[in-house]
Design brief:
By secondary structure, the protein is mainly beta. It contains one helix and ten strands; from the N terminus they run αββββββββββ. A five-stranded mixed beta barrel has the order 1-2-3-5-4. A three-stranded antiparallel β-sheet has the order 6-7-8, with no helix packed on it. Strands 9-10 form a two-stranded antiparallel sheet. Strand 4 and strand 5 (66-72) form a beta hairpin. The N and C termini lie far apart (75 Å). The relative contact order is 0.13. The mean pLDDT is 83.
Length: 120
């Protein structure tokens, strides 16, 4: 028995997390992680909904045979304790230390009423 096992490489444990690129920007998404996976469920923090863009670098987790997309690689460098929410076109909300909230964008709408800028 011992001799029959010599020369064989032991099986590699299956990875439970990989970095990939979004190929189909939807929910469920398509992700390339060495091969393409389709029907990858998109997850985010509670109360937060998002759809990954094509080409974004994402974290893919695997639980059994199912895979899920857990988030995108962070860009920018927030200060410790800060929270940034960024969107397309340069829109952003930054929750800063000391209770400061910075909102950046071309227009600001509150309950449907435009408070600043012009909305098309």
């Amino acid at each position: 028995m011992w001799l029959s096992k010599q020369g064989r490489t032991p099986p590699r444990p299956e990875e439970t997390a990989r970095v990939g690129r979004v190929t189909l920007p939807d929910d469920p998404a398509g992700v390339w992680t060495g091969s393409e996976r389709r029907d990858v469920a998109v997850f985010g923090p509670g109360g937060y909904a998002w759809r990954p863009a094509a080409g974004e670098e994402v974290l893919v987790l695997k639980a059994g045979e199912e895979a899920c997309l857990a988030g995108v690689r962070c860009t920018g460098v927030p200060e410790p304790g800060e929270v940034w929410i960024t969107g397309p076109g340069g829109s952003a909300i930054r929750l800063k230390s000391g209770g400061v909230v910075d909102i950046t964008g071309t227009a600001l709408r509150f309950n449907g009423a435009v408070l600043a800028g012009e909305v098309e």
